[in-house]
Amino acid sequence: MADLHVEQQTLHVSGLVCFETVNADVIQVKKLLANNTIQFVDFAHLQQGDSTCIALMLEMLRQGGENLRFNHIPQSLLRLIKLSELETIFQLSPSL
């Protein structure tokens, strides 16, 4: 399961996000977004994330609103986002 915590309007995601952990991660994200004002999501300390991490990011947008910004997305996730043509949804530059 990912380690999720909020600090200064930023939701920090670290550890592992994968198929086995994503359901628990979604529950935790919903609680954090409901109880905090979050503007940014920081993946600087994400150790591993697969396509389920993108599903978690989509859930974050649903819960937190389309103005939520993602920082320090690992290159492997950026490639998956580009392959899935989701750059505009995550408001990322198409030239990734």
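Next protein, fold it too.
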Amino acid sequence: MDGKVPADSDFTGIECLKTSGLLLVSCQAKHKLYMIDPISGDAEMFAGFAPGASDGDALTEAKFWLPGGLCVSGDEQMLYIADTGGNRIRCLTL
């Protein structure tokens, strides 16, 4: 991980990956998803290329509009995102 979450982030959803302990959080104001190491505080934006509503590669193509609640599948292979501004449930492979 390479940075910190911006101070003006407004987290609206959070999930914990049980196998690694990492936190996945959604930030509505920035239309992005972050992965945070709660021990070091390091963070990495891992999805949400720009505001909008489109599918594709998490870092370079996926766009969210006000991402909200998050849910990780039982096998921790999929992340479901309530994309409230886009009025849909989005899915990313972890």
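About the second fold: Residues 11-93 form a domain with the Thrombin, subunit H fold (CATH 2.40.10.500).
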